[in-house]
Amino acid sequence: MTPQLESARWFVRGDLDGFFGLALDNLVQLLVIVGLCQTVLGFEPALLYGQILPGAAMSLLVGNLFYSWQAMKLARRERRSDVCALPYGINTPSVFAFIFLVMLPVKVATGDSHLAWQAGLVACLGSGLIELTGACGADWIRKNVPRAALLSTLAGIALTFISLGFLFRTYASPVVGLATFAIVCLVYFGRLRFRGGIPGGLVAVLIGTILAWILGDAPVGADYTPPRLYLPVPVLGDLLEAVQSGYGLTYLSIIVPMGLFNLVGSLQNLDSAEAAGDRFPTASSLAANGAGTVVAALFGSCFPTTIYIGHPGWKSLGARIGYSWLNGLFVTVLALTSTLGVVAWAIPIEAGMAIVLWIGIVIAAQAFQATPTAHAPAVVIGLMPGVAAWGALLVKGAIRTTGGDFTPELGKALTQHDIYATGLFSLEQGFIFTAMILAAATVSIIEGTFLRASGYLIAGAVLSWFGIMHGFQWTGTDVVLSIGWGTGGQAAGGYALAALICAVFPLLATRQEKNNR
User: Fold this and answer.
1) Which residues, listed in sequence order, are joined to residue 173 by a DSSP beta bridge?
2) How far apart are CA 11 and CA 113, in angstroms?
3) What does the H/E/C string look like for 413-442?
């Protein structure tokens, strides 16, 4: 029987289990942001705790309250009490993409953390605007862009910038890392549940924290940031200054694809919720997600939000509406009072990195699981540019550590040692577009739609000609994107020739039937 209207409530017992799971996920995300902003970007506590975290809190509060209200509205309309609100939080791939591919290059080039933060604000704002304006066109993108092209590109970021980095940290602290990773695998891959309904992620973090304190890996730092109240303040002046600085155009090849991924990924998660029995309006759900990201940028956060995967899982735990708004309030209190500084002092990243490592593995695996088996080669090809971009990041770090200069002579010297740095740095620039185009063209070739493959390659030629893909220049301190007329001319010529081959050669040959051996 359908539950009656009077049974729909803002909080039920199952919301407690859902809250612990969702709040823990958001907590780990915030700990990662704190760790990376401090160690990789060198942000001062005043910037991190006074502007970035309050901005993130505002975005999470706005989104969680909206999706809670949306779920209650659906429950009342359909006279059901089993409606589960959409899970919502910070977008993990965007955190790593914006830190390593947008903010870090600005920090390296200028040495100015404030400018790096401003570049992150522009990236976040751009992603939010894409989600907002694309809310009505997401279905078209989903129908016309092969799934392998979208998922493999995201998998490349997940496999490298998320998973491998934390895998290295796991083996740098193997007692903490492997113990917590074993718990996460047992819970999420082995589907084990602890008695009493204790969330497995919470168990992993607690055990990891205890081991870290025993081994001397915690507390983190000599002291912690004492709690104090930080009210969210709009940063319109900084945002306007950043937009006028041209960061949006410089990092267009990062901002646009990440915005599209967020848009399409949220759409897929809406489909997942519908399959679990909760049909939410597409346009308003996606627009609210985009609005949350815009709010983040307006209040100082560089990190987009998203509708999380896993709605059926939260619903199966008994979570309904309360777990969503409760999570929003929890994160808000944690961030606005800088209590997160105490948490980051007491709980090292090593204690929670197994969860982030698991997220990266799941995203990478999904690229193969959610695409047709025949498209597996396209997925592999789509992974490669992301691996190259991550490899370029490592090579650059090694060069800076040894005090080397980024000059064409360095590229020639590396080539003599069989390290084709010019190809590596060429792939690094606009690698997300490169991955999408190569994977989409490969899918078209596999399916025998050769003219469509040619069309994708022509798009690659155009983007390369203007330097959005593959255009780079040596600056002495870095190798950076170079946008302009003909800056990626050689790559453009290669794509154009490949497009011609895909259009003409099928006319000179016959297509064989698939060999089933």
Assistant:
1) none
2) 42
3) HHHHCCCCHHHHHHHHCCHHHHHHHHHHHH
- C-alpha angle 23/28/31, rounded to 5°? 125
CB 308, CB 63: distance < 8 Å: no
Reported as a single tens digit per residue, the pLDDT across 20-63 is: 878 888 888 899 999 999 999 999 989 999 999 999 999 999 99
Beta-strand relationship, 305-307 and 88-90: antiparallel
Indicate the DSSP class of residue 3: P
The H or E element spanning position 277 is none
Contact indicator for 81, 4 with CB cutoff of 8 Å: yes
Out of 192-196, 318-322, 355-359, give the one with best mean pLDDT: 318-322
299: DSSP letter:
T
Radius of gyration of the chain (CA): 23
Give the chain's length: 517
- Residue 514 is given by DSSP the state P
Residue 81's φ and ψ, nearest 5 degrees, are: -110, 5
Cis peptide before 219 (omega within 30 of 0): yes
C-alpha 153/C-alpha 385 separation (Å) is 8
pTM: predicted TM-score of the whole model, two decimal places: 0.82
Q: Which amino acid is at 203?
A: V
Cα–Cα distances in angstroms (integers) from residue 80 to residues 8, 74, 297, in the given order: 6, 8, 36
Gap between the Cα atoms of 179 and 82, Å rounded: 36
Q: Which residues of 477-486 are buried (b: 16+ CB within 10 A; e: fewer)?
A: ebbbbbbeee
Asked if 185 and 359 touch (Cβ cutoff 8 Å), the reply is no
The burial of 402, by beta-carbon neighbours within 10 Å (0-12 exposed, 13-18 middle, 19 or more buried), is given as exposed
- DSSP assigned state of 406: B
Do 252 and 90 touch, CB atoms closer than 8 A?
no
Phi first, then psi, for residue 368 (nearest 5°) are -90, -40
Matching residue, tokens 């209040």: 299
Are 186 and 192 contacting, i.e. CB atoms less than 8 angstroms apart? yes
Q: What are phi and psi of 3, to 5 degrees?
A: -55, 145
Q: Which two tokens stand for residue 199?
A: 């969330």
Q: What is the 3-state secondary structure (H, E, C) of 36-93?
A: HHHHCCCCCHHHHHHHHHHHHHHHHHHHHHHHHHHHHHHHHHHCCCCCCCCCEEECHH
Q: Which residues pair with 393 in a beta bridge?
A: none
Helices marked H in 111-235: 113-133, 138-144, 147-157, 165-172, 174-184, 200-215
Cα–Cα–Cα angle for 7, 8, 13, rounded to 5 degrees = 85
Residue range 455-483, pLDDT digits in tens: 999 999 999 999 989 999 998 888 888 88
**Which residues contact residue 416 at a Cβ distance below 8 angstroms, ignoring those fewer than 6 apart?**
none
Task: Provide the CB-side half-sphere exposure for 91 (13 A, CA).
Answer: 34
482, two tokens: 């170079």
d(CA 18, CA 317): 7
Residue 50: CB atoms within 10 Å: 18
